[in-house]
């Protein structure tokens, strides 16, 4: 959870758009582009769901936020208490920047977040790997920012889970960005609730909308696959984040069926002889999950073996502080080699973690 002063000092022309905190009588609220978005509830309640769901309130103040959400050393202490060695760090408020229409503002505000995150992770670069925010409205600018944040030490980048409707990810204009990500060895993430279109946001923030959020990541991955993106960029890695993963076996079956069984229509893409779409999932796509036992049971049918687990600390749905027990249940029946791949090796390979030394698990206070 970003601190209230992160976007202080924003260029004056974006001052009315930049995220800021309104310290109200009832709670503290993030205001973005003149709209009240949410309070600090998302980062105050890690572990509360295990006690009483009625404690999952909406209205909170920043001084109630768990310190580990914005203090890197406290973050690491909480991780250790939960049996977790390192974190791949994604934005919270920063994801809301994709809902801002002014593209120049998104560029400036994302760059400020990326600089803050680089400094945050620099306090423990072997254990904190930051994922920056990219605005892909201008892919040339996005490629430059990707180079800049890699030079600053970030380990990956976020792109909208779905871009603007008139510029899907099979569009040739993204070629420079795909080339840059491949050359820089920077994995790109399609994170839940990072849509660039207002209509998608209206769907997501309904009670029924979240359950089907994987529809957007499926569309974007399909655009990349059938647009030949992974064929031209064999080293490009793109991941699904916080959509869980039980949808993936059905997805790979459908894309192969559509490619091999449906009547081709111009200008449908043709791969080299014998190649089917699921082979690109196997080579180029990684998937993360928090709690998805059906997905674990179906992992052999996903095509990709790049499966990663995350605790989602410090958010409401986090497995903290019960991650060890929850992971043991999720991976029941999974052999030790594959368990190690899911909980460490795959993430380490994607983001550059070293093997951790042994560390003592301590007690944690909720």
Gist?
By secondary structure, this protein is of the alpha/beta class.
Give structural notes.
The strands form 2 sheets. Strands 4-5-6-7-8-9-10 form a 7-stranded parallel beta sheet. The chain is globular, with a radius of gyration of 20 Å. The chain has helices at 72-81, 103-121, 139-151, 175-184, 198-204, 214-226, 229-232, 248-261, 278-284, 293-297, 323-330, 336-351, and strands at 20-23, 28-32, 35-38, 87-89, 128-133, 156-159, 188-191, 238-241, 285-289, 307-309. The chain is α/β, with parallel strands linked by helices. The longest helix has 19 residues, at 103-121. It has one domain: TIM Barrel, CATH 3.20.20. The chain contains 12 helices and 10 strands. 34% of the residues lie in helices and 11% in strands. Residues 361-366 have low confidence and may be disordered. Strand 9, helix 10 and strand 10 (307-309) form a beta-alpha-beta unit. Helix 3 runs parallel beside helix 4 (175-184).
């Amino acid at each position: 959870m970003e601190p209230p002063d992160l976007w202080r000092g924003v260029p004056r022309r974006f001052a009315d758009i930049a995220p800021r905190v309104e310290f109200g009588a009832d709670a503290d609220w993030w205001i973005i582009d003149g709209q009240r978005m949410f309070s600090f509830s998302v980062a105050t309640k890690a572990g509360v769901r295990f006690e009483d769901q009625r404690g999952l309130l909406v209205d909170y103040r920043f001084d109630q936020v768990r310190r580990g959400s914005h203090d890197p050393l406290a973050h690491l202490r909480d991780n250790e208490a939960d049996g977790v060695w390192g974190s791949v760090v994604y934005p919270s408020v920063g994801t809301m920047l994709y809902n801002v229409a002014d593209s120049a503002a998104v560029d400036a505000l994302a760059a400020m977040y990326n600089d803050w995150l680089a400094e945050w992770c620099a306090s423990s670069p072997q254990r904190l790997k930051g994922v920056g925010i990219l605005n892909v409205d201008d892919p040339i600018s996005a490629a430059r920012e990707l180079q800049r944040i890699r030079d600053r030490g970030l380990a990956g980048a976020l792109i909208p889970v779905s871009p603007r409707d008139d510029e899907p990810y099979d569009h040739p204009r993204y070629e420079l960005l795909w080339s840059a990500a491949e050359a820089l060895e920077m994995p790109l993430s399609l994170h839940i609730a990072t849509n660039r279109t207002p209509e998608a946001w209206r769907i997501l923030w309904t009670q029924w909308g979240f359950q089907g959020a994987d529809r957007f990541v499926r569309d974007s991955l399909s655009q990349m696959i059938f647009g030949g993106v992974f064929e031209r960029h064999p080293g490009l890695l793109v991941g699904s984040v916080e959509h869980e993963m039980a949808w993936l076996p059905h997805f790979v079956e459908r894309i192969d069926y559509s490619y091999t069984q449906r009547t081709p229509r111009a200008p449908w893409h043709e791969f080299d002889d014998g190649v089917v779409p699921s082979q690109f999932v196997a080579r180029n796509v990684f998937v993360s999950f928090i709690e998805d036992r059906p997905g674990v049971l179906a992992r052999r049918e996903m095509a990709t073996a790049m499966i990663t687990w995350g605790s989602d600390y410090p958010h409401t749905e986090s497995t903290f502080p019960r991650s060890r027990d929850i992971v043991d249940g999720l991976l029941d029946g999974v052999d030790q080699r594959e368990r190690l791949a899911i909980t460490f090796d795959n993430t380490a390979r994607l983001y550059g973690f070293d093997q951790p030394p042994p560390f003592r698990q301590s007690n944690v206070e909720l």
